[in-house]
Amino acid sequence: MVRARAAHYERKLRFGLRINLLVKETDEEAWAMAERIYSQIDADILATARRATESSDSVGVKRLDKLIHGKPHQCARDLELYPDLWAGLGLVSTGPISFTIIGSPETVANRIAEYCGLGIDAFIFSSFPLIEEAYSTADLLLPLLRSALQPDDRA
Fold it and tell me: pTM (2 decimals)?
């Protein structure tokens, strides 16, 4: 509907998504890393982030807060909002990248493809811990995405 309306005015819209990635060799390894991150969130950090959330007038921040704190969570997997989509970093961040796609290279690539199918044209990927995940993403995911995005030269 939005694209059709833009086309009426001879405009073309593109949509982007900024999201974290946590890529490991297997889904189990990726979720184990999420659990390690989750287990390191102490009460003081949680309280500080919660105060920032409560004082924010952002509708998006309020919605994220309701998603995360509106249900009990005792482990990282309890904050999985959709298959392979984790909201755990939202416990300590009120920024735009509170969601993380978690899994093996194939799992993460499939979720990225799903977003493309929904009309996402561009991505900004982030990671935490930054350096470790940058290497994991580069080594494990990028070759898979490159081959998936290459034109078929076999024809």
Answer: 0.84
